[in-house]
TrEMBL record:
Gene3D superfamilies: Tetratricopeptide repeat domain
InterPro entries for the chain: CellSynth/LPSAsmb/PSIAsmb, TPR-like_helical_dom_sf, TPR_rpt
Record field: transmembrane: none
Name of the protein in question: Tetratricopeptide repeat protein
Each TPR repeat, start to end: 186-219, 220-253, 554-587
């Protein structure tokens, strides 16, 4: 059955991507992570090296104004300076208070003064920490190089400096030196695991993280790191389990919460993460990532009123175009199409003003306009976007926008314009064959059921037939290709070519309504009319879309009429064509074709 199989009610919620963090150190001595990549960029089939990453310091804030408290204590201790200035422990305390009260220069001066005359690794570590905090990496390295090489923390810090400068070889050398000192040190194993992960050595990363977990069983970050490692190897179940454990240990770990939510969403377990997200935003009300994902989970879990409340919280934090898009979808689901239309139009315009990608709001807008029967507006909007330069639209979503555009043209019976559009964009716009397939399939649709152009059909069918065998394509796209090729062959009575595809279409029978209907046509053309009608009826019951039910039924009666006509059973042919013509919300071209056959029967007095 040849119907546009990009569902017209696929609506896209927008969420900002968050870079996955791999935590390298999460204790008092060393706290930092590096940005790995987002989930959409994460290759879950192979573990590959990350060549470009950003080192992220785990920031400490001062919500209770401790700086002023330490400042007062610093002034008290400073009064004892003359008496204890030669004591390394006193200078250490004084410098700590100076640093904590925002007086880094005083701390540096005092420590540099005393370590010239007294050896103290503790003070050197303290001085290196201040330099690291102030971004004076070269000075920090100079101090650390003066510490005994048997000091684990010194090796860790030097490894950090080399890691931050993307010198993985030297970072590894320092870590291996630390490992010789104490192979069970969780800080070393955690750092080494992160380094392995960045180099694409994921099995080694898992081993190091597990060793670190033996002495750091309460580390939420370690379990999140394990999740990322498993995910890069394609072990989704293990990744989810590790993230669940990570969140149990720290329910406010945003890195783990966001990845957990995104991963479950990708697995279509839309509501599974709602409890964790609800707890997270309760105590972290300023997290845009948290509110976005909670709203998304509510939306796909059909809790639209709750989704609207979550989006309301989000709009208090930011005024992103994505918020307008998402609220537009929720109001759509709540039945207020007028408000929804307004939100989606504003989302597109706001995105254009901000120079942002308009893909998702534009797609949703075209779907809504088609749904409320305003196809001319869809055509005008898409035409304007195509003509305009500098508009950002993602290729995979542009493919779906094109489908909405073609649906609009079809409802206006502008088949020639649709053909011109496909010829122009199918070869030049799409780099990924998965994105081009729906447009090529639309070409088959026009060349068969609409224009009956056999040469045009076979021109494109050869390319699509090769795709099934030779290229790795999305399973849904493959199903679309198989179905439409088989329908085309049946349309042109090429039973031998259709028969070749039977084994390809069988896995989708009684699962996909369109493939099931096409197989019903195959059975009818082979003379098994009753069996064919059973498959058609199954197809009608499979689809939940009322319009699709009508179109499948109309096509069934049209094809049945043709079969009876070829058998010279003119009475049954006439009855079938009349039923096809009466389907008011069916295809216009199908109704026109049915009327042609009815006129033929009438003119020749065949009834």
């Amino acid at each position: 059955m040849l119907i546009q199989q990009i569902s017209s009610n696929r609506k896209e919620i927008q969420t900002k991507e968050r870079e996955i963090e791999v935590v390298v150190g999460d204790d008092a001595d060393m706290s930092f992570s590096f940005g790995f990549r987002s989930l959409t960029k994460l290759n879950n089939q192979t573990c590959s090296a990350t060549t470009n990453f950003s080192v992220l310091e785990i920031a400490s804030n001062d919500p209770f104004d401790f700086e002023s408290i330490f400042s007062d204590e610093f002034e008290v201790v400073k009064k004892k300076y003359e008496k204890f200035k030669d004591s390394t422990s006193f200078i250490g305390k004084l410098s700590s208070l100076a640093f904590a009260s925002g007086k880094s220069n005083v701390a540096i001066r005092e420590i540099e003064s005393i370590i010239q005359v007294k050896k103290s690794n503790n003070l050197k570590h303290q001085l290196s920490d201040i330099f690291l905090h102030d971004g004076r990496l070269g000075d920090a390295e100079s101090v650390l190089e003066g510490i005994d090489e048997s000091d684990i923390l010194c090796n860790l810090k030097l490894a950090y400096l080399k890691f931050k400068n993307n010198n993985m070889e030297l970072a590894t050398n320092y870590l291996e030196s630390a490992l010789k000192i104490d192979p069970s040190d969780s800080r070393v194993q955690m750092f080494l695991g992160a380094l392995y992960l960045s180099n694409g050595e994921c099995e080694k990363a898992i081993r190091s993280f597990r060793i670190a977990c033996e002495t750091r069983k309460d580390s939420s970050s370690l379990h999140a790191n394990l999740a990322v490692s498993h995910l890069t190897l394609g072990n989704v179940k293990k990744a989810i389990a590790e993230l669940r454990r990570s969140i149990e240990l720290n329910p406010l770990n945003e890195n783990a919460i966001v990845l957990y939510s995104d991963l479950l969403f990708r697995e279509k377990k839309y509501e599974a993460c709602i409890p964790q997200l609800e707890f997270f935003v309760k105590f972290n009300e300023s997290s845009e990532y948290g509110w976005e994902r909670l709203a998304r989970s509510y939306f796909y879990g059909k809790k639209y009123k709750k989704a609207k409340i979550a989006l309301g919280k989000l709009t208090e934090l930011s005024s992103e175009p994505s918020n307008l898009n998402n609220i537009g979808l929720v109001t759509w689901k709540l039945g207020d199409l007028k408000k929804s239309l307004s939100y989606l139009v504003n989302a597109v315009n706001y995105s254009l003003d901000k120079g942002k990608d308009i893909s998702v709001p534009l797609l949703n807008l075209t779907i809504l306009l088609n749904e409320i029967k305003h196809p001319s507006k869809v055509v005008d909007i898409v035409d304007d976007c195509i003509k305009s330069e500098g508009i950002k639209i993602k290729e995979e979503i542009f493919s779906e926008i094109c489908i909405q555009y073609l649906i609009a043209l079809e409802s206006m019976s502008k088949y020639h314009k649709a053909t011109e559009f496909i010829d122009k964009y199918v070869g030049s716009r799409f780099k990924d064959i998965n994105n081009a397939i729906p447009i090529i399939v639309s070409k088959l649709y026009l060349s068969t059921a609409v224009n009956s152009n056999k040469d045009e059909f076979y021109k494109y069918s050869k390319h699509l037939a090769a795709i099934i065998i030779g290229e790795d394509i999305n399973p849904d796209r493959k199903m679309m290709v198989v179905n439409n090729l088989m329908f085309g062959y049946l349309f042109f009575d090429d039973m031998s070519s259709a028969k070749i595809l039977v084994n390809n279409i069988i896995p989708y029978l009684n699962k996909d309504p369109f493939c099931t209907a096409t197989f019903g046509l195959y059975k009818m053309k082979r003379g098994e009319i009753e069996k064919g009608l059973e498959f058609y009826q199954s197809a009608i019951s499979l689809t939940k879309n009322r319009e699709f039910k009508t179109k499948i039924r109309q096509r069934m009666f049209l094809e049945l009429g043709k079969i009876y006509l070829n058998r010279n059973d003119f009475k049954k042919a006439k009855e079938s064509f009349q039923k096809a013509v009466k389907e008011k919300s069916g295809y216009k071209y199908a109704a026109e074709e049915g009327n042609i056959f009815l006129k033929l029967i009438s003119d020749k007095g065949l009834t």
